[in-house]
Amino acid sequence: MTPAARAQAAIEILDQVIASARDDGPPADALVSAYFKTRRYAGSKDRRAVRELVFRAIRHAAERPASGRAALLPLEPALFDGSTHGPDLVAAGETQAEAGVVPGWLHPLLSPLVGEAEWPSLVERAPVDLRANLARTTRNAMAEHFGAPPTPFSPWGLRVSADTAVTADPAFAEGLVEVQDEGSQLIALACQPAEGTLLVDLCAGAGGKALALAAAAPGAQVVACDTNRARLAKLQPRATRAGADIALRLLDAPREAEGLADLQRRADVVLVDAPCSGSGTWRRNPEGRWRLSPERLERLQALQQRVLDLAAPLVKPGGTLVYAVCSLLEREGAEQAAAFLSRHSDFLAEDIVMDVGRSDGVGRLLTPGHDRTDGFFIARFRAR
Length: 384
Hints:
Elements: H1 3-23, H2 28-37, H3 44-60, H4 68-72, E1 128-132, H5 139-146, E2 157-160, H6 170-173, E3 177-179, H7 182-190, E4 198-201, H8 208-216, E5 221-226, H9 229-233, H10 235-242, E6 246-250, H11 256-259, E7 267-273, H12 288-291, H13 294-311, E8 315-325, H14 334-343, E9 347-350, E10 358-360, E11 363-366, H15 368-371, E12 376-383
Helix pairs in contact: 1-2, 1-3, 7-8
């Protein structure tokens, strides 16, 4: 493919990404893969080059562009040369996507801790972090195996180069490591998992944090819950590979409380890693900025409140509820935590003892610029 033909392919994919972001469809990675499945003529260099163009354009624009052409034009104007298989020539006054990091309507909603000087880090390329499965190996052994340094804060983590083929490595196949951002590892660490306890991961998804809890406390009983069958189904093969004993529980929305009745006042720890805006993971999913809207954010806030209220009755006296969101928005973090305490006088906020992040209300905020992790808000509550 010529450079101009690669640009045209990127435009076609970007058109799909823009439509998918508007209609809550598949992520950009999936759309890139699907595009090339039907275009076998594109070699590996072409695929890499086109993918690079697509994600450069996505990272460039905070607001959803009018079209794929508008998204790519400000980055590669010379490729709009009208050549065969390439983009048409640029018309006078043609629309171009403006450069930006944070959508304008979100500016006042960011945590005050995330100043403009830190914004560029929110969409830079993320590192690849691994979590050593301490139930089967040590971090030092995995650091030596991968030739990678340990992460600065998590006692389980190491940071490998971006081109490391982790999933093709024997250590991955043997369940010795999992791909997991250091910030996610720190959420599991904030739960203080201990053997002989009952740990409930209420929004487990594909189970990354449930796996971390099980690895840190092999003698604990870990229950992973979710309302999404497809997401939860991904956990079982991961648990088998890691040698983790995790009980899966598919909840029936909106009757989740019925499915959790037997756990009431029994759990030592309940983790609520709630659905959220994902604003802390824009460097991994930059098109997430194009998906978010005020209406969607309101729905997510209501869901976070509902899940927290479902979690509270499960915690036994003296037990812990840990609330986390991969968000940098105050409404989903510090404000949501404060609102929980106002509704539940039987819980007290508890300090998270770790030398990372910054105090944000009753919790801590991790950010890409300050901590080199994905962005997370984490709070701990102790049941009276």
